[in-house]
Design brief:
- The chain is an alpha/beta fold.
- It has two domains: 15-25 and 265-389, Aspartate Aminotransferase, domain 1 (Alpha-Beta Complex), CATH 3.90.1150; 27-261, Aspartate Aminotransferase, domain 2.
- The chain is built from 13 helices and 15 strands.
- The protein has a seven-stranded mixed sheet, sandwiched between helices.
- Helix 10 runs parallel beside helix 13 (367-389) and helix 11 (315-324) crosses helix 13.
- The chain is globular, with a radius of gyration of 21 Å.
- The model has no long low-confidence stretch (mean pLDDT 93).
Amino acid sequence: MATTTALRASDVPRAYLDHASSSPLRPACVEAMLPFLRDHHADPGRLHAEGRVTRVAIEQAREQVANLFGARPREVVFTASGTEAVNSAVWGALARAGREHQHVVTTAVEHSAVIESCTRLPTTEVTVVGVDRTGRFDADAVLAAVRPDTALVTVQLANHEVGTLQPAAAIATGARERGVVVHVDACAAAGHVDVDLGALGADLCSVTAHKLGGPKGTAALLVRRGLRFPPFVVGGAQERARRGGIEDVPAIVGFGAAAAELVDGGLEREAEAARALTDRLTAGTLERVPGVERFGDHTACLPHLVCLGVGGVEAEPILLALDQQGVAVHSGSSCSSEALEPSPVLAAMGVDADHSLRASVGWCSSDADVDGFLAVFPGIVERLRRLRTT
Ligand SMILES: Cc1ncc(COP(=O)(O)O)c(C=O)c1O
């Protein structure tokens, strides 16, 4: 199924190339969720028959999610977003250490959910490890930053802006040998490359549903069996007292359905198709538009996204012109209400943050989406470059 859709009947067909921000919901998720939006409403914590229906549905979804991420069902704690999973991991690791002064090791290319939760408490000292020009941090450099008072090492599995895969497993092994809790943020990677809690060797791992074709409003923190872990959201005994608050049953059921589509070869099939599309988009762009460079590692990378630097013209006018011509992409920069902010990830890599855009595909992308991009991108860049010189 192509993502090429019309927003209104009069609009040009759209090419949606921003799956790394959020993917459309898979039809299997919609089907699985509908009965829980329409018919089964009960609090899954109640003992009546209605409550048992929603409880059973959550437990089935938990098994499906656990199955995709190489975890035991009891290791899956559902949260409302990847951001919440990350906040819970960081806060929980610091709270369980229970020290007055905390030391955390992280990296310069983490998502703001990681950076902001690490720097939130004035009593936390944060060591931030830098990256090379591909956006990769070095496992030895991260481990060298671990000290006797380190309460947490938190690193990503893959970078969300440039797609570079990171040595998270080597870091998890090394840090755990020193008795330090390790959190891996796999929100950008989940559903696109193998994420296996056991193989990763991490204590905690965050994954999110909406970037792999599941619904928004649900995600999970995988918590290794045996890890004592205080809840971040308190006030209820849900999720075995590890996350208070009533469960979003339809969303959790949808997450389970999305996960079920990705096991038994589903992820590999989709990743291969995604790689073919991003390769074609990259090759077509480099061939037709001079002065373009691809950021990040070109081989050890997520299959579904590419970050392109465009010389001589800023990202914002390109994004707006692409949007007007029916193509949705994201910039390497982040959106504030006023303007595009320079990307800390690209700045840490030492590349030009004003001139990049990220194109990403997903489970329903097709050649038509790439064609839509290639049909208009060269003309837009040429026009904007001409405007700059006149
Ligand atoms: C690496 C990474 N971590 C965490 C998040 C936050 O996930 P969510 O959008 O589910 O809150 C994102 C989302 O962009 C991400 O890319």
